[in-house]
Design brief:
Strand content: 15-25%
Structural class: alpha/beta
Low-confidence stretches: 1-5, 267-273
Helix content: 25-40%
Order of helices and strands: HEEEHEEHEHHHEHEHEEHH
Strand order of the largest sheet: 6-7-8-3-9-10
Number of helices: 10
Number of strands: 10
Distance between the termini: 29 Å
Radius of gyration: 19 Å
CATH architecture: 3-Layer(aba) Sandwich
Mean pLDDT: 88
Length: about 280
């Protein structure tokens, strides 16, 4: 999406001065306030990818949980499709949660280990209640095909799948609810390089075919540059630098950004398509 189209469209997600504080009890009995988010603001436009990049403890995952309605911010404002998420009743929050799906580093942690692949895919369809039993099985098969998994995997357990297959299954289950936003929280970091490339290509294909919107959370600045339309660098609960990938990579202004860049060996700034392996 071009800068001109941004000016004439409303963002899917708008975050203004978001703050999240936690109270942490110390060993001596006193309470310490932890500022996980400290005045975060950004927008995400439909069909685009915003990458949030930072080291562990920078506030990235807290941001994801607030946006997905699993955590309530201390202060600030969140809008999703012009709906303010502040003060929503629980039933309304559940409606929003269906439209914002989270995918984690190891999706297997959210799978029932005793359920087959098809059972994992049909569970959210049952909860949604929009399909009959006869319609659910073809829908689950279509989801498998959509993420590049064979229908022969339908009867397998999650433990019988590779890491890349489990991540594809996690994406398929999220797509089952037809979300408008996918939040990918370190979703590629546990995979080896060749599988990372395959999943990254899948994400780009889904974005092109379905118009998906992504919030891509990572410590990997190189992968963020390949996937994102815009990168925001976080440190200690704040966005310290934000801009187009080319600008962030070639003219980093903040020390944290320069340190993240230094950790990436031989970074290719041309952003070619990732090769399937």
């Amino acid at each position: 999406m071009t800068a001109e189209s941004h000016e004439t469209s409303e963002p899917l997600v708008r975050v203004e001065n978001l703050v999240k504080h936690y109270s942490k009890r110390k060993l001596v009995g006193s309470v310490e306030e932890v500022r996980a988010l400290d005045g975060v603001s950004f927008s995400i436009f439909r069909g685009t990818t915003l990458a949030i990049v930072g080291e562990s403890g920078s506030g990235k995952s807290t941001l994801a949980f607030c946006l997905a309605c699993f955590e309530k911010p201390t202060s600030g404002n969140l809008w999703f499709e012009e709906t303010s998420l502040s003060g929503l009743k629980e039933k309304d929050r559940r409606v929003i949660r269906r439209q914002i799906q989270l995918i984690f580093q190891d999706p297997a942690n959210s799978f029932n280990p005793r359920w087959s692949v098809l059972e994992i895919l049909t569970e959210p369809l049952v909860l949604q209640g929009n399909l009959s039993r006869d319609e659910m099985h073809p829908r689950a098969q279509a989801l498998l095909e959509q993420v590049g998994l064979s229908s022969h995997l339908g009867e397998k357990l999650p433990s019988e799948l590779s890491g890349g297959q489990r991540q594809r299954l996690g994406i398929a289950r999220a797509l089952g609810l037809r979300p408008k936003l996918l939040i990918l929280d370190e979703a590629l970091s546990a995979l080896d390089c060749s599988v990372q490339a395959q999943i990254a290509n899948l994400l780009m294909e889904l974005q092109a075919s379905l118009g998906m919107t992504y919030l891509f959370i990572s410590h990997d600045l190189a992968m963020a540059a390949h996937l994102a339309d815009e990168i925001a660098v976080m440190s200690r609960g704040q966005i310290v630098e934000q801009g187009a990938p080319e600008e962030i990579l070639t003219h980093p202004e903040n020390r944290i950004t320069r340190e993240l860049l230094a950790a990436v060996p031989r970074l290719d700034l041309s952003r070619p398509p990732l090769a399937e392996s």
